[in-house]
Amino acid sequence: MSNIPDIASKDGGALSMGGPGPRHVAIIMDGNGRWAQARGRPRLFGHHAGAKRIREVVEACPKLGIEYLTIFAFSTENWKRTQTEVAGLMSLFRRYISKEMTALATKNVRVRFIGDRLKLDEKLVKLMDNLEVETEGNDGTHLTVALNYGGRDEVARATKRLARDVAEGQLNPEDVNEETLPRYLDTHVLPDPDLVIRTSGEARISNFLLWQSAYAEYEFIDTLWPDFTAAELGRLCRKFGRRDRRFGKVKT
Ligand code: IPE
Ligand code: IPE
Ligand code: MG
């Protein structure tokens, strides 16, 4: 029997068969622009609606057995959007972090950010740093927000740090392997994602968690991010529980 409760139905999920749910879920929150467009509204309206969905999803995690939730908020490629959209998103992030995120902090959520902070506005970085410190002692859901994050950029920055350690004699090149390299990634304290969800019907990963998702299960769903619910997350977790993860082995 599934140990993942069905938070949308009255049977508590007892009818859905399956194994354990995902410990780490990563979400590419896509489709805000199209959601707004469909309503004849500017793209930023969709981003605001999208941001409002995050709380319900975070709050559903303990019930679903999800210990780590990582959400893609802004990619290293998203700077290519119009100045209006980028500025609007940055202002949304500032507002969101100071208001909504502080509310999450009191709910035992531990917040972390991944991505390159050097290219972000100083005021925003300060808010990010503060929230990380503020929630450091929380031992509930680990929420990681990918902001100015790109998988390739992350690997390049990691390699730079690794090369420095080699040059300074802190690391022997012979010791560079699958265990040591990820210690240099932004995600070094996180387990690899078990399930990666992308909303909005696009079947691509757009530079998200390239190294870490090597063995993740993927779900590409049509729902636009502002329409995503905890019930849908529950459904995807139960589906995950029914999957056979072989990691290269043959089923015995
Ligand atoms: C995802 O929604 C949010 C960000 C990338 C910041 P989009 O803005 O990409 O929405 P669509 O894909 O244009 O609908
Ligand atoms: C990926 O979505 C980035 C985020 C959700 C933050 P995009 O909308 O930027 O991805 P592409 O451009 O469609 O690949
Ligand atoms: Mg998009």
TrEMBL record:
PROSITE patterns: UPP_SYNTHASE. Keywords: Magnesium, Metal-binding, Transferase. Its cofactor is Mg(2+). Mg(2+) binds at D30, E217. GO terms for cellular component: cytosol. Substrate binds at residues 31-35, 43, 47, 75-77, 79, 81, 198, 204-206. The keyword Lyase does not apply. Its EC number is 2.5.1.-. It holds the Pfam family Prenyltransf. Binds 2 magnesium ions per subunit. GO terms for biological process: polyprenol biosynthetic process. GO terms for molecular function: ditrans,polycis-undecaprenyl-diphosphate synthase [(2E,6E)-farnesyl-diphosphate specific] activity; magnesium ion binding. The keyword Transferase applies. Signal peptide: none annotated. The active site is at D30, N78 (proton acceptor). It is an enzyme of class 2 (transferase). Belongs to the UPP synthase family. Homodimer. Catalyzes the condensation of isopentenyl diphosphate (IPP) with allylic pyrophosphates generating different type of terpenoids. This is Isoprenyl transferase. It comes from Parasedimentitalea marina.
